[in-house]
Amino acid sequence: MKNYFHAPTLCAASLFLVLLFVNACGGRGSSGNPQAAAPPDLNGIWSAPFTPDISKALGHQPPFTTYGAARFAKEDEFDDPLTKCLPIGPARGIQAGIMPFQIVQTPAVLTILFENQHTFRIIHTDGRSHPKDADPTWFGDSIGKWDGDTLVVDTVGLDDRTWLDTAGHEHSDQLHLVERFQKVDNNSIKWTVTFEDPKFFTEPWSITLPIARQNTEIMSYSCEENEKDRAHLRRTKK
Amino acid sequence: MKTMSSFMLGLAFFILPLPTPVFAHHGFAVEFDKDNPLTLTGTVTKMEFMNPHIYFYLDVKGKDGKVVNWAFEGGPPNVIYRQGWRKDTLKPGDVVTVKGFRAKDGTHLASCSTVKLPDGREMAGGTGGASQNAYGSAVAADGKK
User: Fold this and answer.
1) HSE (side-chain half, CA atoms, 13 Å) at B47
2) Interface ipTM > 0.90
3) Which of A108, B52, B69, B120 has the highest CB neighbour count under 10 A?
4) Domain annotation for chain B: domains and CATH numbers
5) Domains located in chain A, CATH noted
């Protein structure tokens, strides 16, 4: 009678069964930790409080360099790029307040769709790095990584044409933004943004604002469709 | 309970923000004079429920009997839509009272803080989420840093 209990065959069969069992259990990482849970769902319509002067959120003026302080002292709200219907920029768009934004989240990319001027941000969450020597743009290059319940977004490649707020806090093309979108509960995100710009600020500084879910839909806003203000605007400084 | 309702009324008065002109398109102080408020009553001649700001026009009869056409600027239509405005909230022929601030350039233009409608309702003209103004709303109104 043939021996069905051939040792090597038994070992192989046992190993196969073990592997089958392990795979059915969902697998384990090399560290032995459970597979990472799916990231929080940030989909929806959101808004942070309208913050026309971000120094109010900080509690004092940012740590200006001499150059930054001189620029801020001279700047006039008359020159706000938003008044010329130009793009709002990545961080100012979040704290536009009176106009909400929609987050559309997929595994590889998270988009932020601003009601303001139908503009948007694309945040790559597919593990890529920033391109080398990217041409500066209005909204820059953003990459995001999940850290538990927090999406950490790194943005470089911004040009200097946007303002950080209505009060005239400006930046250069050296601006580096780091944002933390921490989902607190189903209706709240805690948003912390760190501004680093060696031309304007002596050190990085941060503000935190609450982002709240909004019971609305994104509507249309076309800045130029009936623009009548510019003829009436006056400089606030001589 | 009488004490409770008085307390709640007091609390509401304390925390209720005054209507604050909120402009995303530009700051308030570049166009309007916070030290030059006005209240005008007139007949609506035109309503433009359009971006970036609604504009409506009133024929206002002065003390001298002459009629002057005034322009009023409010918030963006989508913002005030969320506060209850519709494109026919103001119609030509409506007699309304508007409170606002005069334009700095001296033209017959003012911001619209509130509008009292023919049915008695008072609509905010463009505060757009005053309750969301956690920071800096006073700065937006007077332009001071």
Assistant:
1) 16
2) no
3) B52
4) 18-142 (2.40.50.140)
5) 44-232 (2.40.128.20)
